[in-house]
Amino acid sequence: MTETITDIKDGHYTLGKAYLNNKQYAEAITHFQKVLNIDADFIDAHCGYFIDAHCGLCRAYLAQNDTENAETAILKARQLAPNATEVLSLCDALKETYYHTGITCYNEERYREAVNCFQKTMTFDATYIAAYHAQALSYFGLHELAEAKKAAQAALRIDPTYAPVLSFLKTIEPSLPEPEPPTTLPVVADETDAPLPSHGRENPSQASQEIDPEDTEVSLDKEMQRALVFLNNRQYLQAEAALKKIINANPNDVEPHYHLAQTYMEIAALSDAQRQLDITLRMHPTYAPALQLQNAITVLKKRANNHQRNKKIRKILLPLAMLAIAGVIAFRAGVFSSFLPQKIPPKLSIEMTLEDPKNKNGIIDAGENVRLKLIITNAGSAVKNLSVRMLPKTIGGLRYQLPKTTFSVRKNGFQIRRIPITADKQVRTRNVNIKIQVLEINEILATRDFQLQIKGK
Questions:
Q1: Total of domains in the chain
Q2: Which one of 70, 211, 227, 415 has the fewest beta carbons within 10 angstroms of its own beta carbon?
Q3: At what angle do helices 25-36 and 47-63 cross, to 10 degrees?
């Protein structure tokens, strides 16, 4: 047995390390495997060599992008020495490899592969909260909302204040069913599995199959939920793609046109926003959210036109800049101070609309979750450290959550803030007058009155 120990020390193990350092990974794998092909009694007596051999094997496989065999090797090493520095380092490397592979799969819409990669990530670090969040988004891409909710809730068990997951849950919670066993989840076919066009020849067996309208309606409803998650997470390109997909399938539905107008407004594509809003109002001239959005777009378009006009004026005046060089000394002496424009204070205004995704009637129904959307515009100088206050502070039968973080509004800019409101199931019918205030520290810069219409059961 002494000769065998010498062989391991000076033979296969040493050669395996040498080949690994020289990036000859196939040869390194061969020698590390020979180190591991020793009887169990010898492993017990010389555990350290086997830990090192498994780690070397893991490094060689990782260098060849063979994550599956690398995982097998490092898990065996972790069984022998769970707290060894090199073992922990390689576990971290595999964790990050699986996580970034999952992100790549998610961005390429290979959601099932992404789910599996994030699950592998959690094998190495059960507290990797970003992996749970990414897995929730991947399940959402598969329309498996119950599983998405489970993954998000698992993340909150690690950190109950994790903002990205809280935002995701707030968006999908009102429309999510109670979690069901995975066997009852709908099967979503990949688009690449769809039959190819017949080019004029229709397969009789395919011709006899009719699409169930209810299935189409459910699919579009899930796509709308997906679009709203993207919109609320400020993933505007993804929101645009999802909403266009819904419109292509059902061009006569008001809601996707309205939300597409919202999306364009958020990215300051005002012409596209107006075009979608015009379609919305042609289909539903009294649609309250669209009318509110029209007011906001009108204000922003006026400011954009003013900006363009000012830009042209500056372009005309640019050649005159050389004249200012001759007056530098006089300028510093204050000769021209009386001609300079004075700094104007912030000039804020508030536009409000009630986002009612369930009933779309502009009324807070018993047990319903809605959001009060605030569009805060600034016609004056830029202002920072703004906060929102709602009066009265308490409303019987309603619960609301004001934004906790301060925000700023640049000159001629705007900000959007939302106040989630939940009505108790036993709330009584009435109208409540509220006052929304925007404050800079303790100074009120803007106030707007609004009436909440509440309908009990």
A1: 3
A2: 211
A3: 150
